Amino acid sequence: MKDENKAYAEFLKALVSFSLDLLKKTEAGAGENTLVSPLSVCLALAMAANGADGETLAQMEKVLGLNLDLDSLNLSLSTFVKNLKQGEKAKFQFANSLWLKKGEGLTVDEDFLKRNDEFYRAEVFLENFDNETLEKINEWVKRNTQGLIDKILDEIQDDSLMYLINALAFDASWRKVYDLKDIYDRDFKSLKGDLQRAKFMHSKEHTLLNDGKAMGFLKPYAQHYSFMALLPNEDVDFAEYVAGLEPESFVNTLDKAGYADIEADIPKFKVEFKVELGNILEDMGMPLAFDPEKADFSKMGKLGEDYDNLYIGRVIHKTYIALDELGTKAGAVTAVEMVGFTMAARLFEPIKIVLDRPFVYAIIENESGLPIFIGTVTDLG
To answer: I want to staple 224 with a disulfide (CB 3.0 to 4.6 A). Which of 30, 52, 85, 373 is the partner?
Structure first.
């Protein structure tokens, strides 16, 4: 039990570290409102990690769990999700799924399926990966985010063999809902310096946060959860502040929260955000998973003769949040796309043929190979 408790404590540290790193990498250069769900990303990647081996697995373990091996990560992540509190006025909805392509592209390993069922209760769908499958995936996403996110995929690529998808939805009311008299108009100064008129909500709060470079507060929801805000001091550059966020100081700021009378004003806002995380996750320390030739997902299953390797093609992350006088609704989806790699397609440069001088042409009947039309082009004048 002590080992399990130690592993769980390590996991919580790892999740904070992963969260801040993901935020920093996503925020850098985005030039827009950003929103990520580290839990959603972690769940989807952990499902994929159960099919990884060798150095590919080691990198994924390091990024997701710091010092935890995959078994400890699975158990801790599963325990964390199960322990998330629910209530009438604070609801979380989680769902995981595996979408497998019919045919001989990939014969999925039974142990891989078993582990994803045991730890993540992942539904399994065997599909043709056609337009109908695309609609089914997006409907599953919409249903499991309570309609907050209506789709995650715009298309299914020809060499896609599997999608590992996590969806989550959060819906919580404030402990004290705002009255009409608490809502007013004022200017919001954007990062570029523009003044933007917005609806603000005023309340009295009592949990003060101060990390030395920013002041903030916690505003409680009706049950189990709180909204956290940190406002960098006026002499602190916003981008530098975000880039400097560290797990230990972040945790300490919450641990050392103090009591105070706070006049808190929050703007109403809604954010919809979509990002492909491949380059970000490579930069965070797991490049092998995205390498067509070097990725090792041999524990995911056996590839058909048409493919030489299996790797992560894309990690698509989509989020939504709406915060108003009643509370907060938020949703997130993460899709890990497993792609089959054909070595022959990359080993040889394509032959380039440009019909920029006289040529012969024909229209042939496919079965017999006989030309129905044949001719030459010698002049385009």
So the answer is: 85
